[in-house]
Amino acid sequence: MTGYTPVFDSIFTGSLFGQYPDTAAWLFFLALADKHGVVDVTPQFIAGVTGMPVQELESCISRFMEPDPSSRTKDNEGRRLELIDPGRKWGWRIVNFAAYKERARLMAKNAREVQSGSNAER
């Protein structure tokens, strides 16, 4: 599993605000996601890698799969995760991964253009 996921401050200013251990578990998911936003490992693996107790992590995962009416992302009723295979209880796709990946790409492009001088007005 290799990848890179930028972390935006909206993780801490959105509907996860003040929701520990959910914020920590969400950062774990972002760090473990592949380039498509898939985390195809068991909760036991995530717990082993991060040190978070399995039961606590499973509670977070359950909340991530529930609708979040306060979420900025209205896709999928604000859910953060969905199972990649409904036939098993583990392995997830981060619902809004593509949107944030595109946001990061555009930010990096803007930064390169400013640095090169081709877009100095920004």
Main β-sheet: number of strands, strand sense, barrel status?
3 strands, antiparallel
The coarse silhouette is elongated
- List SSEs in N-to-C order: HHEHHEEH
What portion of the residues fall into strands of 2 or more residues? 5-15%
Instruction: Outline the low-pLDDT stretches.
Output: none
Tell me the Rg in angstroms. 16 Å
Task: Please state the average pLDDT score.
Answer: 86
- Going by helix content, strand content and strand pairing, the class is mainly alpha
Could you tell me the number of beta strands? 3
Helix content: 40-55%
Instruction: Calculate the terminal CA-CA distance, rounded to whole Å.
Output: 36 Å
How many DSSP helices?
5
Neighbour order of strands in the largest sheet:
1-3-2
Architecture overview:
The chain has a three-stranded antiparallel beta sheet with strand order 1-3-2, with helices on one face. It is mostly helical and 122 residues long. Helices cover 44% and strands 7% of the residues. Strand 2 and strand 3 form a beta hairpin.
Produce the secondary structure layout.
Blueprint: H1 10-13, H2 22-32, E1 38-39, H3 43-50, H4 54-64, E2 81-83, E3 92-94, H5 97-116
Antiparallel strand pairs: 1-3, 2-3
Record keyword descriptors for this entry.
about 120 residues, mainly alpha, three-stranded antiparallel β-sheet, 5 helices, elongated
Q: How is this structure best summarized?
A:
The chain is mostly helical and 122 residues long. The protein has helices spanning 10-13, 22-32, 43-50, 54-64, 97-116; strands at residues 38-39, 81-83, 92-94.
